[in-house]
């Protein structure tokens, strides 16, 4: 990890944005695991306590064919395994975190792709909020809309608690660039929650329910700006619950593959707060919100597939997790009561 950070610090290194992307992935994995919330580093630190001792207790290898370590790891109970793996993952995270001062400096780099990657990387280091808040607030004024928007979302995720940073986010809600307004709305929802301005909620509703394309220039969720807006709507509270659900349903026919996961996943979370249905439940037994969602899924078979496959595996697993039919034909049969 130090070697990668050293390479990143050298302006002569090519593809520094790719190095930043690699470092960020090593630190947090896939961002869809965490959004719309920050990386849960405090939870990892609690879980990792004692993990180093568990790891060091593994027997030293005695040869290429020695599987003693593997057998040791397999013999651990669930608590010790979790403790050990949390320790390993946290060690990687902290190794990447050591580069935070450099990432802040790279927000002013001449290369816009480096500035963008730096803003995205800083989004995940909330423990350094006081150090990164000022540089991110400055980056929110970048002339490139995708960089400004990414810096704004990052400000929301790190949660600096700085009133000046919140003013930057609030002012960006009136920006004439739609992508910047999107970033400001996502950040504002994260920072203010149910006290968010109506303008931020309206912006999120517009993005979540629209049929706009993916914005690949934005790193969060691989550019699925509508998906992140849909996730952020949960943070603005019950006042927008009905409108938020309507927006999610409106978006369903326009998405498929990975882009269907945040929209349909959030709709399922709202419609089925108790989780998996009990065996034998019929469509007629469901409430109005649940029925509306399942009708939308039955009416949108294209939402289920990806890349020529009629059903995307991740989508199938998500729906099955709620005890629902795993393909559009089965959903149609269930909805029709057949």
From TrEMBL:
Q: Which SUPFAM superfamilies match?
A: ARM repeat
Q: Which domain of life is it from?
A: Bacteria
Q: What is this protein called?
A: HEAT repeat protein
Q: Which species is listed as the source?
A: Actinoplanes digitatis
């Amino acid at each position: 990890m130090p070697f990668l950070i050293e390479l990143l610090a050298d302006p002569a290194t090519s593809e520094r944005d790719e190095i930043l992307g690699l470092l960020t992935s090593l630190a947090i994995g896939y961002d869809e695991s965490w959004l719309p919330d920050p990386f849960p580093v405090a939870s990892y630190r609690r879980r990792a306590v004692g993990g180093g001792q568990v790891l060091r207790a593994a027997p030293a290898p005695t040869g290429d064919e020695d599987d003693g370590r593997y057998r040791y790891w397999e013999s651990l109970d669930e608590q010790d395994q979790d403790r050990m793996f949390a320790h390993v993952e946290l060690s990687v995270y902290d190794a990447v975190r050591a580069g935070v001062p450099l990432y802040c400096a790279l927000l002013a780099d001449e290369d816009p792709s480096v500035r963008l990657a730096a803003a995205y990387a800083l989004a995940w280091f909330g423990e350094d909020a006081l150090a990164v808040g000022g540089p991110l607030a400055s980056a929110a004024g970048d002339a490139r809309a995708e960089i400004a928007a990414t810096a704004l979302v990052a400000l929301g995720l790190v949660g600096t608690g700085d009133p000046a940073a919140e003013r930057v986010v609030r002012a960006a809600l009136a920006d004439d660039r739609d992508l910047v307004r999107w970033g400001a709305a996502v950040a504002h929802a994260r920072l203010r929650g149910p006290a968010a301005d109506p303008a931020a909620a309206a912006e999120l509703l517009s993005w979540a329910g629209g049929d706009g394309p993916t914005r690949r220039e934005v790193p969060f969720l691989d550019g699925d700006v509508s998906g992140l807006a849909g996730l952020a709507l949960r943070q603005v509270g019950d006042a927008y619950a009905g409108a938020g659900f309507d927006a999610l349903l409106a978006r369903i026919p326009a998405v498929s593959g990975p882009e269907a996961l945040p929209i349909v996943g959030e709709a399922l979370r709202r419609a089925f707060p108790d989780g998996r249905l009990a065996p034998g439940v019929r469509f007629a037994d469901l409430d109005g919100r649940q029925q509306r969602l399942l009708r939308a899924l039955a009416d949108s078979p294209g939402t289920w597939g990806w890349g020529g496959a009629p059903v995307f595996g991740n989508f199938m697993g998500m729906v099955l997790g709620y005890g629902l039919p795993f393909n559009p034909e089965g959903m149609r049969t269930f909805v029709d009561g057949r």
